[in-house]
Amino acid sequence: DGGITQSPKYLFRKEGQNVTLSCEQNLNHDAMYWYRQDPGQGLRLIYYSQIVNDFQKGDIAEGYSVSREKKESFPLTVTSAQKNPTAFYLCASSAGSGSYEQYFGPGTRLTVT
Amino acid sequence: AQSVTQPDIHITVSEGASLELRCNYSYGATPYLFWYVQSPGQGLQLLLKYFSGDTLVQGIKGFEAEFKRSQSSFNLRKPSVHWSDAAEYFCAVGATGRRALTFGSGTRLQVQP
Questions:
Q1: Are A66 and A55 in contact (CB under 8 A)?
Q2: Phi then psi for A107, rounded to 5 degrees?
Q3: Which residue of B has its CA nearest to A106?
Q4: Which of B101, B102, B105, B108 to mutate to test the interface with A (most CBs of A within 10 A)?
Q5: Which of helix, strand or coil describes residue B85?
Q6: At residue B31, does pLDDT exceed 90?
Q7: Is the pLDDT of residue A24 over 80?
Q8: Segment A1-21, tens digit of pLDDT
Q9: How far apart, in Å, are the Cα atoms of A9 and each of A17, A63, A67?
Q10: Do the Cβ atoms of A64 and B65 come closer than 8 Å?
């Protein structure tokens, strides 16, 4: 079955540590996205990538970094510079040119203490 | 920039009753509109989408939505709610040239037996 996988489902880290969240898709989609979800705030865009080796900052990119070395993979690193990293992180993908509908992974809940 | 407002944070309906969830958007041109549903701790599932054409769109699970340009609205409806519809619902808008979607803050639906 085609889809988007995110791992792990739950992640715990100590303050000051960087952590990388995995996102893999086998839908052959060109574009991939990272969103952050906090209670009562909907989804906010962190980074997105429309093609391999290219990505753009979203609305809340500070304290995060990404890479897009392969079409199917778009990992997100939450750095120690992110002031409030505890949140639910969602990865999504879309087919790209002419397609706006996005398909989402199951999410990773990150807790930093 | 586009924006989305979901005026109702929380709605409770009885099983079998009809449902309407409100969504208002702000965007200068014709938007691409979506409704997604999210169960607790899960990713988002696409319910339906509007790109152009017929302003009444049908989706999965018996949901429909109507695009009203004059009111800048895209309300989600279902004639008879089932207990399994309890979840959080997000309206989203896409704009030409910006692949990432802008989401509303969500409406949590509770279904009473």
A1: yes
A2: 90, 155
A3: B43
A4: B101
A5: helix
A6: no
A7: yes
A8: 679 999 999 999 999 999 999
A9: 18, 21, 20
A10: no
Q: What are all long-range contacts of A54-58, with beta carbons under 8 Å and residues at least 24 apart?
A: A58/A33, A58/A34, A58/B100
Structure tokens belonging to residue A64: 């995060």
What is the SS3 string spanning chain A? Answer: CCCEEEECCEEEECCCCCEEEEEEECCCCCEEEEEEECCCCCEEEEEEEEECCEEEECCCCCCEEECCCECCECCEEECCCCCCCCEEEEEEEECCCCCCCCEECCCEEEEEC
Average pLDDT, chain B: 93
Residue A104 near chain B (CB below 8 Å): yes
What tokens appear for A25 in the block?
């898709």
A41/B94 touch (CB, cutoff 8 Å), yes or no: no
Residue B53 to residues B34, B50, B57, B68, Cα–Cα distance (Å): 15, 8, 9, 12
Residue type, A9: K
What does chain A come to in residues? 113
Q: Are A87 and A101 in contact (CB under 8 A)?
A: no
